[in-house]
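Subject: design request, 344 residues
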C-alpha cells in the first residue's frame, strides 16, 4: 500500500456467512454477446470466482425487463450482487432490479434504486448538482440546440442521457461551432432528441476519483489522472468508446493512468476528493462508486458523471485505484458485500 494511504482506509471485515447463496444479477443480453466473445462476461465471472473464494455460493442470474420478484424470494437470498448496468441493453432501466429488491426487502450491493436512477439520468444528476452548488459543466437539451437555442458558447460535446461506458462517444461528438451543433442536433430524429444532451466541453485535464464504503463512511481511493497520448492534431482528448474499450487499433492513441502528484497539485487533488465525498453523501451512494471530472485551464474541477456500481472487470479504473490503495479484488468484493449486509 502506498505510504500516503497507509492506515487511512478503515474497514470492518466481518466473517463470511459460509455457504450463503449470492445471486449475481446482470443484463441477459450479455449471454448473447458471450457466444461471440467470452470476455463479455468477465465481470460476472470475476465476481463469481471471488465470492467462491470468500466462502459464498455464487449464482449468476441473467435478467431482463420481464424479471419476476418471485425469482428472488424463491431463492431465499440474504443479499444480491448487483451487476446490472443495463436491461435489454438500455441504461434507462438500470434502476428496475434494485427497485424490485427494495420492494421485497432483499439487500443488494452498491447504491440504492434512488441513487442509481438519479445518477444514471445524466441531466437529472446535473440539475441535482447545480441545485446543491457542486460544479458541473453547463448543458442544454439537444432539442433546444436543434432550434438554435444554445445558451452557452462552444466547444460542445453531445452525450446520451442514459448510457454510460462512453456509449456513442467518438471524436465527432465534440463540436466547435454553434452551426455545427445545430446541424448535428437536427440530424438526430425528433423523437429521439430528448435521449441526448449538449454539454460544454472542458478542454483540460481529466480525473477519476473512486470511493468505497468504510467503517467511518466513504473512503476515497487514490485519485487518478487520465493522460492522453498519441492523439493526432485536431482529435479531442476524450475517453471515447474506441479508446476506452481497446478498439482503437488503427492509431497510436492511448490513455495512461497517473496516480503520483506533485506537492503543488495536492490542493487540486484534495478539492477532487472533497467533491467526490460530497457526491457520495448528496446522492446517498452505497458500496462503491467512481466520479469523473474535467479540470479547466484555470484549475477549476467540474463533475462530468457519477458512476454508481462502476465496472469491475478487466482493466477497470475502479480496480486500478483499489489496487493502488492496497486492496485486491477479493478485498473489494468482501467490502461491498459486507456493506450490503450492514456489516460496515
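Subject: RE: design request

Done. Sequence follows.
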Amino acid at each position: 500500500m502506498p505510504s500516503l494511504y497507509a492506515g487511512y482506509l478503515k474497514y470492518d471485515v466481518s466473517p463470511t456467512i459460509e455457504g450463503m447463496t449470492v445471486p449475481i444479477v446482470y443484463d441477459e443480453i450479455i449471454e448473447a454477446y458471450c457466444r461471440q466473445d467470452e470476455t463479455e462476461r468477465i465481470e460476472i465471472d470475476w465476481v463469481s470466482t471471488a465470492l467462491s473464494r470468500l466462502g459464498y455460493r455464487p449464482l449468476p442470474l441473467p435478467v431482463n425487463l420481464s424479471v419476476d420478484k418471485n425469482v428472488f424470494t424463491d431463492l431465499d437470498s440474504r443479499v444480491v450482487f448487483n451487476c446490472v448496468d443495463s436491461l435489454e441493453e438500455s441504461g434507462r432501466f438500470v434502476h428496475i432490479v434494485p427497485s424490485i429488491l427494495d420492494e421485497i426487502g432483499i439487500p443488494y450491493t452498491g447504491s440504492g434504486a434512488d441513487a442509481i436512477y438519479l445518477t444514471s439520468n445524466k441531466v437529472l444528476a446535473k440539475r441535482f448538482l447545480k441545485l446543491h452548488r457542486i460544479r458541473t459543466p453547463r448543458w442544454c437539451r439537444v432539442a433546444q440546440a436543434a432550434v438554435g437555442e444554445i445558451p452557452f458558447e462552444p466547444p460542445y460535446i453531445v452525450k446520451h442521457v442514459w448510457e454510460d461506458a462512453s456509449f456513442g462517444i467518438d471524436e465527432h461528438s465534440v463540436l466547435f461551432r454553434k452551426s455545427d451543433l445545430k446541424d448535428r442536433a437536427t440530424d438526430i430524429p425528433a423523437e429521439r432528441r430528448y435521449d441526448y444532451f449538449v454539454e460544454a466541453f472542458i478542454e483540460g485535464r481529466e480525473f477519476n476519483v473512486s470511493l468505497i464504503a468504510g467503517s467511518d463512511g466513504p473512503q476515497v481511493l487514490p485519485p487518478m489522472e487520465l493522460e492522453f497520448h498519441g492523439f493526432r492534431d485536431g482529435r479531442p482528448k476524450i475517453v471515447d468508446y474506441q479508446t476506452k474499450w481497446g478498439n482503437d487499433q488503427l492509431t497510436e492513441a492511448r490513455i495512461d493512468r497517473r496516480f503520483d502528484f506533485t506537492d503543488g497539485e495536492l490542493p487540486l487533488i484534495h478539492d477532487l476528493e472533497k467533491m467526490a465525498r460530497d457526491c457520495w453523501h448528496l446522492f446517498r451512494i452505497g458500496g462503491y462508486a467512481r466520479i469523473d471530472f474535467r479540470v479547466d485551464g484555470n484549475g477549476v474541477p467540474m463533475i462530468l458523471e457519477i458512476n454508481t456500481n462502476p465496472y469491475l472487470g478487466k482493466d477497470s479504473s475502479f480496480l486500478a485505484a483499489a489496487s493502488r490503495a492496497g486492496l485486491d479484488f477479493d478485498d473489494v468484493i468482501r467490502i461491498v458485500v459486507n456493506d450490503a449486509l450492514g456489516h460496515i
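The two ends are 21 Å apart (CA to CA).
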